[in-house]
């Protein structure tokens, strides 16, 4: 990963996204025998990616002998020779025009490129690019290291990890008897640490024209998978890619779909030329660009999982009818932009306007501790110290029941309260309509055909169903939608319980939502 010392803000034009035809949610729903044998073959290929193999590559690439693999040095050449030797053994086709594995560039640097031809006569002229850089910063200096300088920087995570992963992906692809429909271009970039030199050179002098590259996965630093998950940047520049990846996340890795996207690795020269390019990364750490970025600190099994996820995604996108297309994207889509998807929870007026003792509420005793002035509760004559017995004859047992009842009750409701020794029946005019679901949503044109939950009301049916802010919903009882209105119509028209196809942190799930129609709510305990 390139250390950005000066960040020059690149402003790109932003236009409306081009809508994309719907893709089937379960890509293997109509499995023919042929498909099944392809699945078996893919499983075998996936299983060929092992910790032992990855470790062997990284042990060599990140050894002191290679002296930090700085572009143009002996150690870097030894790394290149190792990679080419592996590719040769796999009998992969060298991609360079002169039949060589190397693409040379000034002054004495070398990208390494191979091609796996596609199996479909029509689609083989299109490519999926899988790449990562194999160089690092050598002994480190003031401009490329965070110190101490003059000591071998092994770059085990940066980027022996990605290099090893791509070598294993290449081997897995080479083992497939039936190749993916589109061709795969595999690249090991040089000179990345000197300013993305290798990938920039390729973008300027492409061997496969960039127009033919439909999708790009860049692995840079995939060696430190932690519970926070795998970072994926650039998904917003590839329409629909988020859901596409979530579908391939069969290991349920937590995926962190990042909103920021920076020119700090080899995805950038391709992104600048409108190739949908994803950056796959397990996150920065204290040893980043320091001599301490060593093998013993890597999460080897994490590298295996990330590599397998990349292989699954690569094969899927190579076979997909319409791969995620480039979406003009703006740097304005940064942290500020994400606020659109996190609607404020404040300033929502409550339907009743009371607070109550939380501890007592746990035991089903709702004793009011404050009444908001001019609220429905105030108007109805509720007082501090009153204990709520029932709402519309529904006797309270838990605090959640109370909240749910208040949210879902008709505007004209009756409450029974105990005040001292007396029981009083009070008529309450609750604010607004009963809440059927209890969540708000918006749409995101980076992911057409899905809504993002922006707010969930505590105690609402949505809350009970486990719906959270940032959940993305893609179907209602199996039905797709393309607008907010369509989603709303499906929701209102669906029968209880409503099954929602959802995604959160790159994991797909089904959520069962019980709508709270007033009559149904009153029949429930
Ligand atoms: Zn780096």
What does this entry look like structurally?
Helix content is about 30%, strand content about 20%. With about 525 residues, the protein is of the alpha+beta class. The chain has 3 domains: about 300 residues, Aminopeptidase (3-Layer(aba) Sandwich); about 80 residues, Pdz3 Domain (Roll); about 80 residues, Roll (Pdz3 Domain). Strands 1, 2, 3, 4, 5, 6, 7, 8 and 9 form a 9-stranded mixed sheet that branches. Strands 10, 11, 12, 13, 14 and 15 form a 6-stranded antiparallel sheet that branches. The C terminus is likely disordered. The structure holds zinc ion. Zinc ion binds next to loops.
Question: What structural keywords apply?
Answer:
single chain, 525 residues, alpha+beta, Aminopeptidase, Pdz3 Domain, 6-stranded antiparallel β-sheet, elongated, disordered C terminus, binds zinc ion
Give the ligands present: zinc ion
Number of H- or I-type helical stretches: 15
Instruction: Please tell me the overall pLDDT.
Output: 88
Strand tally = 20
Main pleated sheet: 9 strands, mixed
Structural class, from helix and strand content? alpha+beta
CATH class of the largest domain: Alpha Beta
User: CATH superfamily of the largest domain, please?
Assistant: Zn peptidases
Low-confidence stretches: 6-30, 518-525
CATH fold name of the largest domain = Aminopeptidase
* Rg measurement, Å: 28 Å
Please tell me what the overall shape is.
elongated
Number of domains: 3
- Report the end-to-end length measured between terminal Cα atoms: 57 Å
- Portion in helices: 25-40%
CATH architecture of the largest domain: 3-Layer(aba) Sandwich
- Assembly form of the protein: single chain
Strand content: 15-25%
């Amino acid at each position: 990963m390139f250390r950005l010392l000066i960040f020059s803000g690149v402003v790109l034009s932003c236009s409306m996204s081009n809508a994309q035809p719907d893709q089937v949610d379960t890509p293997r729903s109509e499995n023919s025998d042929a498909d099944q044998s392809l699945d078996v073959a893919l499983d075998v290929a996936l299983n060929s990616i092992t910790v032992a193999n990855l470790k062997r590559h990284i042990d060599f690439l990140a050894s002191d002998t290679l002296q930090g693999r700085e572009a143009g040095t002996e150690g870097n050449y030894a790394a290149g020779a190792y990679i080419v030797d592996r590719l040769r053994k796999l009998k992969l086709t060298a991609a360079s025009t002169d039949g060589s594995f190397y693409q040379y560039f000034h002054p004495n640097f070398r990208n390494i490129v191979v091609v796996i031809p596609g199996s479909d006569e029509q689609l083989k002229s299109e490519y999926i690019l899988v790449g990562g850089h194999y160089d690092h910063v050598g002994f480190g200096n003031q401009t490329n290291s965070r110190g101490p300088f003059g000591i071998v920087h092994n770059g085990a995570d940066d980027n022996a990890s990605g290099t090893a992963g791509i070598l294993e992906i290449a081997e897995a692809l080479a083992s497939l008897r039936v190749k993916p429909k589109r061709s795969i271009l595999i690249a090991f970039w040089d000179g990345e640490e000197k300013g993305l030199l290798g990938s920039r050179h390729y973008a300027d002098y492409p061997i496969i024209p960039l127009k033919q590259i439909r999708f790009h996965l860049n692995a840079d630093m995939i060696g430190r998978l932690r519970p926070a998950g795998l970072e994926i940047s650039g998904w917003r520049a590839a329409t629909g890619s988020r859901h596409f990846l979530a579908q391939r996340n069969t290991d349920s890795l937590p995926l962190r779909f990042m909103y920021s996207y920076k020119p700090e690795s080899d995805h950038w020269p391709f992104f600048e030329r409108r190739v949908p390019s994803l950056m796959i990364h397990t996150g920065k750490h204290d040893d980043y660009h320091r001599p301490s970025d060593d093998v013993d600190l890597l999460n080897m099994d994490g590298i295996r999982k990330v590599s397998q996820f990349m292989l699954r995604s690569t094969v899927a996108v190579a076979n997909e009818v319409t791969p995620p297309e480039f979406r003009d994207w703006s740097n304005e889509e940064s942290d500020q932009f994400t606020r659109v998807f996190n609607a404020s929870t404040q300033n929502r007026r409550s339907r009743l306007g009371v607070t109550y003792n939380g501890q007592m509420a746990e035991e089903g005793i709702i004793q009011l501790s404050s009444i908001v002035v001019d609220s429905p509760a105030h108007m109805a004559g509720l007082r501090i110290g009153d204990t709520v017995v029932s709402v519309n004859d529904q006797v309270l047992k838990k605090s959640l029941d109370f909240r749910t009842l208040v949210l879902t009750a008709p505007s004209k409701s009756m409450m029974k309260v105990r005040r001292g020794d007396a029981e009083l029946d009070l008529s309450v005019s609750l604010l607004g309509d009963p809440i059927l679901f209890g969540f708000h949503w918006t749409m995101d044109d980076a992911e057409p055909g899905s809504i993002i939950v922006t707010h969930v009301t505590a105690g609402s049916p949505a809350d009970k169903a486990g719906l959270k802010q940032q959940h993305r919903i893609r179907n209602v009882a199996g039905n797709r939608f393309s607008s907010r209105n369509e989603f709303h119509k499906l929701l209102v028209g669906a029968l209880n319980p409503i099954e929602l196809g959802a995604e959160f942190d790159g994991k797909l799930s089904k959520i069962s939502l019980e709508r709270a129609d007033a009559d149904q709510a009153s029949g429930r305990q």
